[in-house]
Design goal:
Shape: globular
CATH topology: Aminopeptidase
Strand content: 15-25%
Helix content: 25-40%
Number of domains: 1
Order of helices and strands: HHEEEHHEHHEHEHEEEHEH
Number of helices: 10
Number of strands: 10
């Protein structure tokens, strides 16, 4: 199989011209306004909507919105984020489904901040990167090169609270292997090393703060909705050793991951597999909703 990406020179990092060529090849495939903003407009009026920035590419088209429900100074604060990778649809729609359905039932017990679509341009063009060929989910650190990550970090810092839980909703897709990982290798002047895509749901905990009981509770909650990813022959998922059923760990802070942006006690990155023959768009959204609910119930019971 030809592993050469169509942009750039093999073995050499991309120039500004290569990055521009990549950007010029992107096309809008769906509407952030129709599929995200319109749904947020229809939410229960008791939720507070907060605009925390815009994308400089088009400030009118890409406002950044979060939803806040805070009613009790003694209740725990939770953060739910979706669409850090814009192409991972169920992360966005799962966060919105949570707000549309069950979020109100928790408002007397928790304070919540929900950013359902962190990367709206990525959502529209169904891509992992932002317009500058930057992966937002490797950019949650000081002097971030990602406008999306920087804006979200500033929003979270402005609340000046200690979050108890942060759930970052993601997907692992077949296009990770066919498009996004090859593109990243080409951009960085590296050789693409093929991997495998797990068939099913899994979570990624923090190597420095794994919270295995929290991860296990999420797996148990999601299993009622969709299947859990089995490990490969090396007892790994996406190249990482399995630490529990359906659970691997990453170095959140070192890798600049969104789920490491706070000092929350309980953190996780959910990973839904939408390309499974046993999955549908609806089951993927419901899996994200089940993950959030399971996480909240664990936090409230701990």
């Amino acid at each position: 199989m030809n592993r050469t990406y169509p942009i750039g020179i093999p073995g050499e990092p991309w120039t500004a011209e290569h990055k521009q060529a990549w950007f010029d090849a992107r096309t809008v495939e769906r509407s952030y306004s129709d599929e995200v903003l319109a749904k947020l407009d229809r939410l229960d009026g008791s939720f507070e909507t907060v605009q925390y920035g815009t994308l400089p590419l088009d400030s009118q088209r890409y406002p950044l919105w979060a939803i806040v429900a805070a009613s009790d100074n003694t209740a725990p604060w939770v953060l739910v984020t979706g669409g850090v990778h814009g192409y991972e649809t169920s992360g966005v729609q799962g966060a919105i489904r949570f707000l549309e359905t069950v979020a109100s039932s928790y408002r007397d017990r928790i304070n919540m901040l929900v950013a359902p679509c962190v990367s709206p341009w990525g959502y529209e063009v169904i891509n992992r990167w932002n317009p500058n060929c930057v992966d937002p989910n490797r950019s949650f650190h000081l002097d971030s090169p990602s406008e999306e990550a920087a804006a979200l970090m500033a929003l979270v810092a402005s609340f000046d609270v200690r979050f108890t839980m942060h759930m970052d909703l993601h997907e692992t897709t077949d296009t990770d292997e066919t498009e996004f990982r090859p593109a990243a290798a080409a951009r960085d002047g590296k050789t693409f090393e093929p991997g495998t895509i797990p068939d099913g749901f899994y979570t990624v905990g923090d190597t420095e703060n794994p919270q295995p009981e929290f991860q296990a509770a999420i797996i148990a909650g999601v299993e009622a909705v969709t299947h859990i990813a089995p490990p490969d022959e090396s007892e790994c998922l996406i190249g990482e050793p399995l630490v529990d059923r359906g659970v691997i760990n990453y170095r959140y802070r070192e890798w600049g991951l969104c789920a490491g942006m706070t000092d929350a006690t309980f953190t996780t990155t959910t990973e839904v597999y939408p390309d499974s023959p046993n999955a549908t768009d609806e089951s993927c959204i419901e899996a994200q909703l089940a993950a959030v609910q399971a996480g909240l119930e664990f936090v409230l019971g701990s």
